[in-house]
Amino acid sequence: MSWSPRKRRLVQFAVLAIAAGEISAAAAEVLILRSAGPSARSYPAGRRVADNTNFTLRPSDVVVILTNGATRTFRGPGSFSAAGPVRGGPRMAGGTNVRRQTGAVRTDLPAAEEARPADIWQFDVTQSGRACVLPGQRPVLWRPQSDRAVRLTITPQNGAAQTVNWNAGQSTLEWPASVPVVDGASYQLNWTGAPNPVRVTTQTLTGVQVGNVEAVAIAFLDKNCRSQLDVLIATRAATDGPA
Question: What's the pTM value of the predicted model, to 2 decimals?
Answer without folding.
Answer: 0.75
